[in-house]
Amino acid sequence: MENVRELFQVMTKRFGLLNKNCCSVGGIEISLVQSHILYEIDRLKEPSMQQVADALAMDITTFSRQIQTLVKMNLVKKTPYPKDRRIYILSLTTEGKYVAARIDTEMNQYLNEVFSHMSEFEKETVLRSIKLLNDCMAKSSVCCKPLF
Amino acid sequence: MENVRELFQVMTKRFGLLNKNCCSVGGIEISLVQSHILYEIDRLKEPSMQQVADALAMDITTFSRQIQTLVKMNLVKKTPYPKDRRIYILSLTTEGKYVAARIDTEMNQYLNEVFSHMSEFEKETVLRSIKLLNDCMAKSSVCCKPLF
DNA sequence: AATTTTATTTGCAAAATACAAATATAAATT
DNA sequence: AATTTATATTTGTATTTTGCAAATAAAATT
């Protein structure tokens, strides 16, 4: 049997690299962490600070400062939540949505290119495999449970 | 069709988290970056500084300083290369090997646990899928070519 | 021999990180 | 209702990480 971890390590390294490369779009340049923050804000609907920080497994104080930067860059908006005034709801500004969408397009473009080297059947199998993997990881009790 | 990037993002986030969690073993505590460095030194046989930095897509100056730290921690050894005195060969010390092995064990343990939620057939399919994916990513010309 | 290239390190300033403490508000307890 | 406890977020501060530019040193090329 091949080394399982090695397979994962190579895959995630490549995907991580792709993520890093996709951080500069249309003249705007953001860090990898910031790109992940935009992604999560977009994915979760009207999340609070704490929710996004949790989803990214990020220290809340570091996260708070990153959000301050993103607000200054006019990519993220912080809205007080009337029902609980401790909480701020995060959302993407128009510009933030644009950046997130551009990154998403570029990522999917690359992934399509990768899948173009496979048959349709292989592609379906790979995607189903990843989905299965994600489900099983979610079930696992060894680590990282609280998240997701 | 589901969102392909989303699938990858979730998977790599989980795996990244696992990597982070596996950074403290047997009383020794290292950073995620340092864990990756140990892993690559172990994987490549007698690599130079530049080779490992390239494999990790890391800035060589940052890498140089990380190596200094790891040498001080007695996890990595730097050996001058006689045939080209500009070059240093990196290797793991006994302690470094121990840490890397412990991390590897822990990672594989978790992965086994994840796969225990699948049938043997599913497991084989998933592993073959990842291998195929890695091959196709290597073939791809869109990004990240120089590496690997 | 002189120039160019490659490998690595250091100077330096900016950015990221995380612990502890502060603040503000909500929820629970007395 | 007043007090305590818990939760969400920010700030103080010190450490670590990062990466560009420049320095150094040794090989390769001209």
From TrEMBL, chains A, B:
Keyword Transit peptide: no
Keyword terms of this UniProt record: DNA-binding, Transcription, Transcription regulation
One example GO MF annotation: DNA binding
Pfam (any one): MarR
Domain of life: Bacteria
Regions that span the bilayer: none
Domain spans labelled HTH marR-type: 1-135
Matching InterPro entries: HTH_MarR-typ, WH-like_DNA-bd_sf, WH_DNA-bd_sf
Signal peptide: none
PANTHER family: TRANSCRIPTIONAL REGULATOR, MARR, TRANSCRIPTIONAL REPRESSOR OF EMRAB OPERON
Protein name: DNA-binding MarR family transcriptional regulator
Species of the source: Paranoxybacillus vitaminiphilus
